[in-house]
Amino acid sequence: MTTGTELLTVPQVMARLQLGRTAVYDLIRTRQLASITLGRARRIPTHALTDFIRTRLDQEAAA
């Protein structure tokens, strides 16, 4: 899975965004960051993280 469909764990997203666990779960809860649930595990597709970052950059540029 290297075509943008790689699934990241919450700790991996925390490291990439340099945010805490609560902040990442808040982004998921408010649907700013897309995720899926596999059993009890929460996973974030790499493309969802890329889309989130692109959206935030666009918002910053428009401000």
Helix content: 40-55%
If helices are DSSP runs of H or I spanning 4 or more residues, what is the number of helices? Answer: 3
Computed Rg: 12 Å
Q: Strands of the largest sheet, in order across it?
A: 1-3-2
Overall mean pLDDT stands at 94
Protein name: Excisionase family DNA binding domain-containing protein
Domain Helix-turn-helix: 7-56
Explain this structure:
It contains 3 helices and 3 strands. With 63 residues, it is α+β, with helices and mostly antiparallel strands. It has one domain (7-62). It has a 3-stranded antiparallel β-sheet. A hairpin with a 2-residue loop joins β2 and β3 (41-45). It is globular, with a radius of gyration of 12 Å.
Task: Looking at this protein, list some descriptive labels.
63 residues, HTH_17, 3-stranded antiparallel beta sheet, 3 strands, 3 helices, alpha+beta
